[in-house]
């Protein structure tokens, strides 16, 4: 979509520069870019700020590029090693089996699952050594999309992904939809095989988030899909801020007018339909990084938090602790102590 392509139709020119300009103007400090061939971009928690993830001012930038398959991961690493995003720093996470699209079939269809795994491992290590790979993901279970992959195959290779995380010592970018019991069972068996992670785009119940947070090294990522219903907001109210990240998961998961959380949104941008594209407007129906501020506003509003600046700092710090513990901790601490916010 950020190339102007919608369902194979070119509706407008590529506009990543305009999208990033709006992000910086909105106070976005770091972005993690998740790259697939459909050009999805994700800015979530303070950097998840992974897609992530938090909000307010400054402009230090971090990219995370993610592929949805082995070939996409190779392409993602290639992008991270170029100047495609000018002089901004970049990182990327290598998925073993993505819960989206058809990547889950790759192991069995490769004819040699172990060779396929070793290729992913080699790619992840190569990127990590160059400072480009920052996480393993997106991986997990999605039982709302069994038409893409049956649950048995999802579970089999989700388990395998922990071996990749263990061997690389990288955190995990996790996905869980309508699968909390199996997801947490697999986590329990592998809790000593990964350093930390975030369960992004969380839409589960209070019981589900309690299960997730029983693992001391996990965080919960909140985006527009997490804020649809009054029940969603009740869950968000209860998640400890110290265990939370926020994200956009753009170009998807925007906060819509029908969402329960929309009443807390304060920041608005002019918008136009893609057919009437204007680079000074956001595209209707397309989420983008600047809108992470709206996620922050809804989280703060539904929890009755007046100091959004402090909330944003906490969310930002959470993200740095997980995804950039060596390179970015000192920078994060400096921002926090200096009273700056982040997006």
UniProtKB/TrEMBL annotation:
GO terms for molecular function: 3'-5'-DNA exonuclease activity; metal ion binding. InterPro entries: DNase_TatD-rel_CS, Metal_Hydrolase, TatD-like, TatD-type_Hydrolase. Pfam families: TatD_DNase. Keywords: Hydrolase, Metal-binding, Nuclease. GO terms for cellular component: cytosol. SUPFAM superfamilies: Metallo-dependent hydrolases (SSF51556). Transmembrane segments: none annotated. Belongs to the metallo-dependent hydrolases superfamily. TatD-type hydrolase family. This is TatD related DNase.
């Amino acid at each position: 979509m950020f190339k102007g392509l919608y369902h194979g139709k070119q509706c407008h020119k590529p506009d990543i520069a305009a999208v990033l300009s709006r992000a910086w103007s909105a106070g976005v400090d770091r972005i993690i870019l998740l790259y697939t061939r459909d050009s999805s971009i994700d800015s979530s928690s303070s950097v998840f700020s992974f897609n992530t993830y938090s909000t307010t001012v400054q402009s230090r930038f971090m990219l995370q590029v993610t592929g949805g398959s082995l070939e996409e991961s190779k392409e993602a690493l290639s992008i991270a090693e170029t100047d495609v995003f000018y002089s901004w720093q970049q990182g990327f996470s290598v998925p073993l089996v993505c819960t989206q699209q058809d990547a889950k079939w790759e192991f069995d269809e490769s004819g040699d699952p172990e060779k396929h795994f070793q290729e992913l491992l080699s790619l992840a290590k190569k990127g990590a050594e160059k400072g480009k790979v920052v996480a393993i993901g997106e991986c997990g279970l999605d039982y709302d999309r069994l038409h893409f992959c049956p649950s048995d195959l999802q579970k089999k290779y989700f388990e395998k992904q922990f071996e990749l995380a263990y061997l690389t010592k990288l955190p995990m970018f996790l996905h869980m939809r309508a699968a909390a019991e199996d997801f947490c069972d697999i986590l329990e068996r592998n809790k000593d095989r990964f350093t930390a992670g975030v369960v992004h785009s969380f839409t589960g119940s209070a019981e589900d988030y309690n299960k997730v947070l029983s693992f001391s090294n996990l965080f919960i990522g909140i985006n527009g899909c997490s804020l649809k219903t009054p029940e969603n907001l009740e869950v968000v109210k209860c998640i400890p801020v110290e265990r939370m990240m926020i994200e956009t998961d753009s170009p998807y998961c925007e906060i819509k007018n029908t969402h329960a959380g929309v009443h807390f949104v304060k920041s608005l941008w002019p918008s136009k339909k893609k057919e009437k594209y204007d680079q000074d407007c956001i595209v209707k129906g397309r989420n983008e990084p600047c809108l992470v501020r709206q996620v922050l506003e809804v989280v703060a509003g539904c929890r009755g938090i007046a100091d959004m600046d402090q909330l944003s700092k906490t969310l930002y710090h959470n993200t740095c602790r997980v995804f950039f513990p060596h390179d970015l901790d000192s920078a994060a601490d400096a921002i926090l102590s200096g009273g700056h916010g982040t997006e």
